[in-house]
């Protein structure tokens, strides 16, 4: 019974799918690795006419079984839809696939969800535009199992028209953020978020190692103490961000001079037999900022030691 219902709605979806840019626009997915096949499956599950292509064609079989249309030739995959979503290993692979198809790209929207550098995104954007297509670069901040949930965040930059036309289609994949017309912005912000994550993970392993030096179990410490503490600390970030934007770092709660007066964390770590090498670089920066005369500032002023100074 359910199967019949599903089939009926599927047919209707196919009928609706004629309108370009509508929520049910036909979609082509190029690259069916772990990520690409999850993207394609999401479009199929949402009733999009979905065409798929992969260098190794066998990987399309499962998706074809679910209702996707498997293109043998890349040219057919490109011709099938107004929007092409490409998710392959790297930009070299993406370029290798698209280069021979350059005459077929005119009028298309190319959404490149392959991970790369800001420079690669800019170069790809220029190349795509030069062949008469609109370009959107995207950074997927999620693993395949999160795709199609709100927890999958995808950053986009490039053609605003393309983004607005296909926003509803792209939002099938998760929560999307459009960052601006320069294609470099998505990969740059992707890396910035990962940098924030690794900083936090570095703090996490040090904290667990320090508490664990007297036998505290990582799991208890993490869920009972560390996570609530970090959540409270995260709530101070908007104020720090405001200080960075305004350049007014005057300390309200805790001055750098007070925080960097003693390397208690480093010293106690060493006494406990724990390496402080994830914490040490941050402490060095705090000390340097105090030595340079900014002891009255809040922690956020440490950014002045690492950021690119605006040219004036
Ligand atoms: N998986 C994740 O958790 C995750 C998260 C965020 C972002 N990403 C990004 O998503 C992209 C794809 O990741 P993935 O996990 O799907 O990787 P994957 O499972 O290793 O799949 C790689 C894909 O790239 C294709 N490919 C590689 N070299 C190629 C070439 N020279 N020509 C044509 N196709 C080529 C492969 O085709 P074959 O099947 O023929 O080898 C396959 O479709 C990467 O840029 C990755 O950084 C992945």
UniProtKB/TrEMBL annotation:
Name this polypeptide is given: NAD(P)-dependent oxidoreductase
Oxidoreductase among keywords: yes
Biological process per Gene Ontology, one example term: transcription elongation-coupled chromatin remodeling
Record's keyword terms, sorted: Oxidoreductase
UniProt entry tagged with the keyword Oxidoreductase: yes
A Pfam family annotated for this UniProt entry: RedAm-like_C
Domain of life where this protein originates: Bacteria
Coiled coil: none
InterPro entries from the UniProt entry: 6PGD_dom2, 6PGDH_NADP-bd, HIBADH-related, HIBADH-related_NP60_sf, NAD(P)-bd_dom_sf, RedAm-like_C
Any Gene Ontology CC annotation: chromatin
Record domain NADPH-dependent reductive aminase-like C-terminal: where: 182-308
Family listed: Belongs to the HIBADH-related family.
One MF annotation (Gene Ontology) recorded for this entry: DNA binding
Residue span(s) of domain 6-phosphogluconate dehydrogenase NADP-binding: 27-176
């Amino acid at each position: 019974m359910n199967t019949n219902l599903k089939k009926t709605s599927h047919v209707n979806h196919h009928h609706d799918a004629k309108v370009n840019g509508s929520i049910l626009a036909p979609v082509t997915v190029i690259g069916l690795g772990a990520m690409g096949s999850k993207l394609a499956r999401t479009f199929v599950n949402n009733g999009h006419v979905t065409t798929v292509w992969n260098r190794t064609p066998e990987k399309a079989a499962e998706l074809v079984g679910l209702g996707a249309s498997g293109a043998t030739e890349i040219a057919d995959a490109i011709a099938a839809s107004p929007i092409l979503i490409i998710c392959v290993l790297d930009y070299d692979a993406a370029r290798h696939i698209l280069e021979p198809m350059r005459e077929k790209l005119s009028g298309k929207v190319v959404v490149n969800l392959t991970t790369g550098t800001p420079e690669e995104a800019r170069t790809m954007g220029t190349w795509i535009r030069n062949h008469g297509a609109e370009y959107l670069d995207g950074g997927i901040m999620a693993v395949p199992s999160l795709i199609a949930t709100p927890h999958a965040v995808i950053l986009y930059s490039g053609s605003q028209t393309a983004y607005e036309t296909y926003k509803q289609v792209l939002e099938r994949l998760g929560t999307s953020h459009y960052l601006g017309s320069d294609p470099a912005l998505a990969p740059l912000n992707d890396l910035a978020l990962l940098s924030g994550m690794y900083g936090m993970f570095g703090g996490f392993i040090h904290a667990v190692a320090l508490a664990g030096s007297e036998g505290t179990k990582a799991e208890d410490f993490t869920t009972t103490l560390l996570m609530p503490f970090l959540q409270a600390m995260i709530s101070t970030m908007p104020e720090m961000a405001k200080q960075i934007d305004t350049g007014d770092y005057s300390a309200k709660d805790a001055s750098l001079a007070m925080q960097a007066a003693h390397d208690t964390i480093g010293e106690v770590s060493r006494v406990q037999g724990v390496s402080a090498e994830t914490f040490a670089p941050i402490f060095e920066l705090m000390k340097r900022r105090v030595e340079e005369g900014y002891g009255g500032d809040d922690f956020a002023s440490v950014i002045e030691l690492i950021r690119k100074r605006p040219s004036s």
